Amino acid sequence: MSECGTYLGNYGDPAGTIGLKTSLPGFDARDLSGDNDSNKRSFNSNWSNLVKLKILGVAQGTSAPVQTHRPQGAGQEQWTSGWSWVPAAVPTGLTFIPMWEERVYNQASKIFNDDLLFTYSGSIVTNLSGARSYFSGPGLSPNIVWFEPWMGSPVEAPPVNTSFTGFPAFPSQPVSPTCAYAIYSNKLGDPS
Amino acid sequence: MTEVAFLLGPRGTEDGVFIAPPGIDARTATPDQLLLHVTSAIPQIAIRGTAAPPFPQLIPHALGFAPFALPNLVSTNLVNGTFGYVRPFDNSWGPWTNTLLQSEITRVGIYQTGPALAVSYFIYNRRAP
What we know:
Distance between the termini of chain A: 34 Å
Strand order of the largest sheet of chain B: 4-10-6-7
Largest sheet of chain B: 4 strands, antiparallel
Number of strands of chain B: 10
Structural class of chain B: mainly beta
Number of helices of chain A: 0
Strand content of chain B: over 45%
Shape of chain A: elongated
Structural class of chain A: mainly beta
Oligomer: heterodimer
Helix content of chain B: under 10%
Radius of gyration of chain A: 26 Å
Strand order of the largest sheet of chain A: 4-14-8-9
């Protein structure tokens, strides 16, 4: 009997699931013993870890001015001016929490960095940047992944006063890097 | 009407390969209901691999554009004698390993500073923005 390189059908699955599978040269796609053997199968739509990529994109977060007032104890108080990171929202169009990932991206030079950049001198980190993300669901519509590229900036401690003398001037607005992301239509934590 | 589990060809405005689980019609299923959803509109991984130090190294491709790509670092040195890792960055302790992929029209360059670690990379069939 000649080999069958590509097979589509319900190949003995008791759940009745239709599948598509292809075999490497010399192996038969109908041979059930090779279903999970990547040395025999080149593709199997029922592989539980088959990655289903849905969205590739880039996102740039922004920062917004924030002023705060904190009691310091002993009648002293501190007023600060700073920046808070504002994440970028990416609707997934999915009905469940998906898998996703992100990296720091330099669009001008088309450089995909690892997820966290450090510039350091000896043991002192002088600057760092990165990308982080959250999920706002399930149960919210639209189902959203939030990406927040960020960059560390020097912090100057404002003076501690016993009375309000006015908020200090805002430091320079930090530059926000861009992140590149991939969102999958695989459920987070689901092996299937 | 009888369900269709497998569809090859047009599906609404899409054209590709679609497989639905039992009880779901592949012609009308939402994308996240499908077991398999392959169309030209869905991004795919075109090239994947793992490169061992030293770097830089250049990965040739014939996509015709500078593609989207994502790196991971691979450590086979067991942390605390118990585990290695594959992850997007190395922050276990300074000095850190910094890794980047530079996307070009005919190749993707892998560059690294800091302690040497192997790099796992994915190159996609989509143009880098």
